[in-house]
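Quiz preparation item.
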């Protein structure tokens, strides 16, 4: 069978798989945004996080109640995020409660407050994966993280993580024009530090980032990022570092298989849900208020998950404007939902159509 025919068969099978997953909508990943507070004030933050909470945040007792509820209905992988989870003074108690309930969990951190004692406690409480944010060399990381110790602390955290026996040791990098030419240098650094996974994200214009268009890759730069991953992924995988493109945005199927573990599938509201720091229920935590589905303080999460999330699971409403006559709709279905405003005539960015909306 010709290569083109094999790819066509794989594409057809993947399309069917996505339809089955959407219909079943089994909850596989649940993000706990345990705080909106952060010890940094990054230029590219999509959440407008700050040192002080901008809204009331759930107590430890509330999060433990949610854990018990989740355990009674599902067994998803829990991801602790923020803000910065480590600014919660009771994070060790919270993670101990996850361990006591035998819930599998990981976390995302900027590394600023991660030291050996805290890391050992988290590992003892069942930490199974950790994602560290590191966005370039010293000058580049400090520039967008806006803290004099951000880079050194991130390196120290990476040393701790890389030397550990955790199975999944992940770095994420937000790519912007200032670090686009440093990708190979960063890949070698992460590999030498013992990390085994590296995910690269394109900054999207939300939160603080919306006020800093100079951080957003244009169409040509975005394709340079994709092509760099395509050209280097197999080599670095052989050396022990799995490099992958983020979940943002549809790419042509044959190329997609070269830059991601799985082809594009926006699983928000299909396999992924988030509970925000004030109890709000949504898809992935990058989705804005127009996609909120309720609040655990007043709504039954099991009912919301079973009967809500309609706009996530039927995305025909997204077939307007740029997407209306697209021949790749069956596979793209409007792209990542966090890039689509319900009132807009298309996504904020598209890899297949270089229009004026592609910042």
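Solution:
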């Amino acid at each position: 069978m010709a290569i083109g025919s094999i790819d066509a068969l794989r594409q057809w099978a993947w399309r069917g798989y996505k339809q089955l997953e959407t219909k079943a909508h089994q909850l596989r990943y649940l993000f706990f945004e345990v705080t909106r507070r952060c010890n940094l004030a990054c230029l590219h933050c999509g959440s407008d996080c700050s040192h002080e909470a901008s809204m009331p945040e759930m107590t430890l007792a509330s999060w433990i109640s949610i854990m018990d509820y989740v355990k009674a209905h599902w067994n998803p992988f829990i991801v602790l995020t923020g803000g910065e989870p480590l600014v919660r003074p009771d994070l060790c108690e919270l993670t101990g409660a996850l361990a006591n309930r035998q819930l599998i969990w990981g976390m995302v951190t900027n590394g600023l407050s991660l030291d050996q004692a805290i890391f050992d406690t988290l590992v003892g409480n069942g930490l199974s994966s950790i994602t560290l944010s590191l966005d370039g060399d010293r000058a580049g990381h400090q520039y967008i993280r806006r803290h004099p110790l951000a880079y050194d602390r991130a390196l120290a955290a990476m040393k701790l993580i890389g030397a550990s026996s955790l199975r999944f040791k992940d770095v994420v990098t937000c790519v912007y024009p200032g670090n686009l030419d440093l990708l190979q240098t960063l890949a070698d650094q992460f590999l030498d530090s013992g990390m085994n996974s590296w995910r690269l994200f394109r900054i999207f214009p939300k939160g603080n980032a919306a006020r800093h268009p100079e951080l957003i890759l244009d169409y040509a730069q975005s394709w340079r990022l994709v092509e760099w991953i395509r050209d280097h992924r197999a080599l670095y995988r052989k050396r022990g570092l799995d490099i992958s493109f983020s979940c943002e945005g549809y790419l042509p199927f044959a190329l997609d298989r070269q830059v991601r573990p799985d082809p594009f599938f926006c699983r928000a509201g299909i396999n992924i849900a988030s509970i925000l720091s004030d109890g709000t229920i949504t898809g992935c935590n990058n989705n804005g208020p127009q996609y909120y589905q309720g609040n655990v303080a007043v709504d039954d999460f099991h009912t919301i998950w079973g009967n809500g999330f309609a706009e996530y699971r039927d995305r025909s409403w997204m077939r307007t404007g740029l997407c209306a006559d697209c021949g790749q709709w069956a596979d793209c279905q409007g792209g990542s939902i966090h890039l689509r405003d319900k009132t807009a005539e298309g996504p904020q960015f598209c890899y297949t159509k270089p229009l004026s909306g592609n910042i």
